[in-house]
Amino acid sequence: MPHAALADPRAAVQAIARRSSEPAWSLEVRERALQAYLDSSLPDRVQHLWRYTDPAPFAPADLSPPSAAAENQGTAGEREPGVRVLGLAEALRSEPDLVRAHLGKLVGDHASSEGSGKFEALNLAAWTAGTLVHVARNVRVEKPIHLLQAFPRPQAPEAFLATRILLVVEEGAEVTLIDECEGGGPGLKLSSAVEVFAAGAARVRYVAVQRLDKSVVYHVAQRANVARDAHLLTAIASLGGGVTKSDFGSYLTGPGSNVELVGFLFGEGRQHFDHHTLHDHRAGKSWSNLDFRVVLKDRSRSTYTGLIRIEPGCPDSEAYQENRNLLLNEGTRAESIPELEILTDEVKCTHGATMGTLDAQHLFYLMSRGIDRAEAVRLIVSGFVEPTLARLDPDLRERLRAHVEERVRGL
Amino acid sequence: MLENAMTLPSAPAATKSEKPDLRVGDDYATRYGFHDVEEYFHKGRKGLSHEVVEMVSRMKKEPDWMRELRHQALDIYHSKPMPGWGDQELLRSIDFDDIYYYVKPMAEQGKTWEEVPDKIKRTFERLGIPEAERKFLAGVSAQYESEVVYHSMHEDLQKKGVIFLDMDSGLREHPEIVQRYFATVIPPADNKFAALNSAIWSGGSFIYVPPGVDVGIPLQAYFRINTENMGQFERTLIVADKGSRVHYIEGCTAPVYTTKSLHSAVVELIAFEGAYIRYTTIQNWANNIFNLVTKRAVAHRNATVEWVDGNIGSKLTMKFPCVYLMDEGAKAEILSVAFAGNGQHQDAGAKVIHAAPNTSSRITSKSISKAGGRASYRGMVKVYPKAKHCKVSVECDALLIDKDSRSDTYPTMEIGEDDVQIEHEARVSKVSEEQVFYLMSRGLTEDEARLLIVNGFIEPFTKELPMEYAVELNRLIELEMEGSVG
Question: Inter-chain contact A340–B400, Cβ cutoff 8 Å?
């Protein structure tokens, strides 16, 4: 058994539930998820999703949460009517029906949510920090909601922490959620689960900015359900973390649903990134686009696997996917596995991937204009990410560009 | 014909073996002289064991090293798990114990022309396959008139020092070359099916081209189809010495009808410095066949290897022609077409390993899915660290003919070097209504318009084929496309 070392996980899970006086059904959800976690073996490394990343480090030795958990910042303050931002534990008590209807339905154990694996179940069993964001029908939230999670350095040699976000956007509503995490330190295993429900004609922007310490072992799973005529933009900036395994996916369940994912990652030192994306078209006239850019230097490594799936009977769907990799020096490694599974004929579907180093001609051109090499490299790298940023609205673009510039300055 | 000798499901063997009207593999006894053990072997047995391997090897009077290799391979075969990827449902449906791995050649002789399915006969008719050839392809006759052609060609080759034999003869007549290269590109431990083939292989081609020799005409297995070409576990080894050139063509566009269910070949190509090998396959197995093939080439300095690979028949094909680019200047080109019709899964692709700087590769894959068929491109491009200035281009196009069909693309790129140029593109689409409309407005029927579009779609492939193959392939596509409107 892979969990011989796990010290009394049931007691730990019960303690978590008791601590915030969770209702009985919540403990049941946790216990069932825990069972799913314990019953499943580590992911099969033959399957490509885990071929390049060892799953073992993601399994914690102890589920009891560290005494000083991360504090959610930016959640407080007055909100417009129709918008609720609550701690998830609090919401279990104050909004039981809402939470119960959504919690674990997209990221959880295999019984509660399809496609969820071992570590998704672990999160549902052992989460201790979380946020519920609910936007009522036809409410337009003008200002982005910013969740900043700053994790302290663990005191023990190993600490495990699981957080969740539940974003429920009702029909015709509009919201931007910025999910930013930073901090942590050696020994921290962090698990994050994000569930997004975009009801009919909702417009949702979910932005994940990851700036964790370069020692953190980080697992993140996001799933979104995008209904009829709803629009979801997912923007990802992956900057920190020691070993990052991330999985961002959307189910396009209604006709006219529209999903866009733009993202970039910057790897340096010995950072290891393993990103997976899923765009699963389950309705006709659905549209998705993905643009994911990777910049690697030193001995960093990136694996990108992205699946576009168009289920049977989804005519007039379109799906596009692009993955570009810029390898700045010898010693970097990149894998790219863009995948298509197309079961409907009336579709347009393409994907493309490129890998390469800095274009010598571009460098030469810039340097012949009197720009020194380091600055030329910075310009080219900024230019490489720019088309991705250009897809975003001005406010998001500026916010993410600041992170890019911070990284580029260090080149 | 060894192919028929190798295995078959039990029913046809048992019920038809008494019919004496055919002469399949008649010369087998005289060639291998195995009458000593004939009694022992008379019935054949299902399943695979060391006993069977020993028997096969002894019958063929093989050298000790080959016999040992077979036994080792068998152990590996038993110890390896089935692939954990690919079409699990279909793979699980193979019953390995229900296969005759080696049957006395006489056992399958009972097949008659009447038993050949009408669909296959019609296809022969439409493709314009000569009568004698039809019977051979259907496994009814062992004689085929191109034998004569083969013999005259054979003399020309001999003058140039080219060796072109079936693998068994190659092992007998040129043991030193075979021992040096056999299983060096695909060792038995490579995968379960390579191990299976290594344990029980029979037939296939052996080609050696001496330094600097340009073979000129394509070598076609077609010419020696009546020897052991289309075996179930065929084994092909092509060695092109420095600066030589050879084009080998395997298979043919006509459907190959056999009652056997598993075909698992191993093909090894070695291109030494400056050599050029092109290997063309057009696979059109009957739709009950599992076609699980391992094909791999090594290309040394400035050598070029090209796989031109067409997959039209079979129930499940898993075939990923591979090139290892071992030294500077080596080039790989893989061009493939897959046509997946009703009940078929074409899981084909390409694999290129860049193990040296300044190597280049190009992969072009075209697939067509129709009537519920499933075509998958599964590919791998790997660039090792220090393999600088590599160029890779991968292009996958898929065409879906109707709404029941499926197309998958699973490319993998593992890049360990920064100074490279890698491009991958894939597109999936249906036949464009605009194009159909345009052609119909020019007086074509809808069927004709669609056929023209499909033929245009695979044209980059057909234009690489020798004329007669291209013509046959076009006719075959025409046949497969029939009635696709509506």
Answer: no
In chain A, which residue's Cα lies nearest the Cα of B390?
A356
* C-alpha distances in Å from residue B313, one per residue of A86, A212, B295, B309: 59, 53, 18, 12
Strands (E), B90-224: 163-166, 205-209, 219-220
Mean pLDDT, chain B, rounded, equals: 80
Domains of chain A, by residue range, sit at: 9-357, 374-411
- Dihedral sign computed on CA atoms, order B165, B168, B174, B178: positive
> Mutate which of B360, B415, B430, B484 to disrupt the A interface (most A C-beta within 10 Å)?
B415
Contacts of B412 in chain A (CB under 8 A): 48, 335-337
Find tokens 């919401």 and name the residue: A91
Backbone φ, ψ for residue A97 (5° rounding): -65, -45
Q: At what angle do helices A373-390 and A360-368 cross, to 10 degrees?
A: 120
pLDDT reported for residue B134: 63
Cβ atoms of residues A297 and A331 within 8 Å: no
Q: Measuring CA to CA, how many Å separate A354 from each of A65, A108, A293, B206, B230? A: 42, 34, 10, 39, 40
- Asked if the model's pLDDT at residue B153 lies above 80, the reply is no
Query: Residue B162 region, left (φ>0) first, then alpha (ψ -120 to 50), else beta?
Result: beta
CA distance A350 to B316: 25
Using a CB-CB distance cutoff of 8 angstroms, which residues of chain B are in contact with residue A354? 422-424
Sign of CA pseudo-dihedral A69, A71, A75, A78: positive
Query: Given an 8 Å threshold on Cβ–Cβ distance, is B426 in contact with A338?
Result: yes
| Top-confidence residue, B393 or B146 | B393
Neighbours of B68 (CB within 10 A): 12
Distance CA B142, CA B165 (A): 18
* Contact of A193 with A167, CB cutoff 8 Å: no
pLDDT of B181 > 80? The answer is yes
CB A337 to CB B418 under 8 A? no
The burial of A298, by beta-carbon neighbours within 10 Å (0-12 exposed, 13-18 middle, 19 or more buried), is given as middle
Contact B477, B458 (CB under 8 A): yes
- The answer to whether ipTM exceeds 0.85 is no
Q: Tell me the one-letter amino acid at B393.
A: S
* B148/B129 Cα distance (integer angstroms): 17
Question: Which H or E run contains B447?
Answer: helix B446-457
CB A245 within 8 A of CB A274: yes
Residue with the two structure tokens 């020096």: A329
The C-alpha atoms of residue A313 and residue A360 are separated, in whole angstroms, by: 47
- Rounded Cα distance, A89 and A201, in Å: 29
Q: What is the mean pLDDT of chain A?
A: 90
Between chains, do B413 and A353 touch, taking CB under 8 Å as contact?
yes
Where are the domains positioned within chain B? 12-112, 140-431, 432-486
